[in-house]
């Protein structure tokens, strides 16, 4: 009974009723990454992925043109749960799906991106498929997922594994058309922790905490939660805000969380993480492992 309640709460947070059984087939297909990848390990923990998802959305909202694409062409303002659910399912499919399913999902999203463009209120034109904008989304998303994993799941994750994670994640973004090269045609895509931090810093002059950004942050901070999972939802949101890099808080006119505040949230997450992870044994990660003949 408790297990089923937790499963319901977790799924209702992202409004996802997708069945994971499709991740069982075809047997033996490793997909884009396979069970030995760091991506499988990082994305296998639902709690930290939700936390990373919240912080990545906040960071993405700080880039006015990246936000404009979502603002103009997404239903997130009317259906935040639906948007989070679709994003979560895309991550699940590209991480754990078989090769055909994963590549089809990437191609489908790329096709949608290629058709979307607009003009920011300040007059600047943008294309959602612009590699520079896609790169900001990739950097903030992969950074946020990995940072949440490091804080709430594996504080001792090695730098080599962190580097491997960024290198593996580049496969999805490059498939979406995020090709980053210099004037000589050399690959400049950040695939290590130091280079990711450096790439993020290079965007600082472009970032701003606009009225739109504040609207998104307020929406996330007041995420619509079912009364049955209110406590779980509020905790994940709080952890998502605490998962931000320190440079983001002054930009958003917020104090940097204290060590005590971070520890309190971390301890609370750890208290409920075990039953949530237990509840998610019916999820896509386990089904993908079964596809590969791996059993816990």
What would you say this structure looks like, in words?
The protein has 296 residues and is mainly alpha-helical. It has one domain (2-16, 36-282). It contains 14 helices and 2 strands. It has a two-stranded antiparallel ribbon with strand order 1-2. α1 (2-14) packs across α13 and α5 (80-96) packs across α6 (99-114).
- What is the count of helical runs? 14
Q: Work out the helicity level.
A: 55-70%
The strand order across the widest sheet is: 1-2
Q: Report how far the terminal alpha carbons are from each other.
A: 23 Å
Summed over residues and divided by their number, the pLDDT gives a mean of 88
String of helices and strands? HHHHHHEEHHHHHHHH
Number of domains: 1
Structural class by sheet pairing and helices: mainly alpha
Low-confidence stretches: 1-7
Q: Based on CA inertia axes, which overall geometry fits? A: globular
- What amount of the residues lies in strands? under 5%
Q: Please compute the radius of gyration using only Cα atoms.
A: 19 Å
Instruction: Give the biggest sheet.
Output: 2 strands, antiparallel
Short description:
The chain is built from 14 helices and 2 strands. The protein has 296 residues and is an all-alpha fold.
């Amino acid at each position: 009974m408790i297990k089923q309640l937790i499963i319901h709460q977790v799924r209702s947070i992202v409004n996802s009723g997708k069945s994971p059984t499709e991740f069982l087939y075809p047997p033996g297909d490793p997909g884009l990454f396979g069970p030995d990848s760091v991506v499988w390990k990082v994305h296998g923990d639902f709690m930290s992925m939700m936390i990373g998802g919240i912080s990545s959305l906040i960071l993405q909202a700080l880039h006015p043109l990246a936000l404009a694409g979502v603002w103009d062409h997404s239903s997130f303002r009317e259906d935040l749960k639906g948007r989070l659910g679709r994003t979560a399912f895309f991550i699940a499919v590209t991480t754990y799906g078989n090769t055909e399913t994963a590549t089809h999902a990437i191609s489908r999203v790329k096709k949608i991106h290629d058709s979307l463009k607009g003009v920011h209120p300040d007059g600047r034109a943008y294309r959602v498929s612009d590699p520079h904008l896609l790169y900001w989304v990739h950097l903030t998303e992969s950074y946020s997922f990995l940072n949440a994993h490091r804080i709430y799941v594996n504080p001792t994750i090695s730098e080599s594994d962190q580097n491997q994670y960024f290198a593996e994640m580049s496969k999805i973004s490059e498939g979406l058309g995020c090709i980053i090269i210099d004037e000589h045609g050399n690959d400049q895509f950040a695939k290590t922790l130091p280079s990711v931090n450096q790439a993020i810093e290079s965007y600082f002059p472009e970032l701003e905490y606009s009225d739109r950004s504040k609207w998104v942050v307020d929406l996330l901070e007041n995420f619509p939660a079912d009364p049955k999972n209110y406590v779980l939802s509020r905790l994940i949101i709080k952890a998502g805000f605490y998962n931000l890099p320190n440079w983001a808080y002054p930009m958003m006119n917020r104090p940097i969380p204290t060590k005590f505040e971070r520890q309190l949230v971390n301890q609370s997450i750890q208290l409920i993480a075990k039953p949530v992870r237990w509840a998610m044994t019916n999820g896509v990660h386990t089904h993908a492992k079964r596809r590969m003949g791996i059993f816990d």
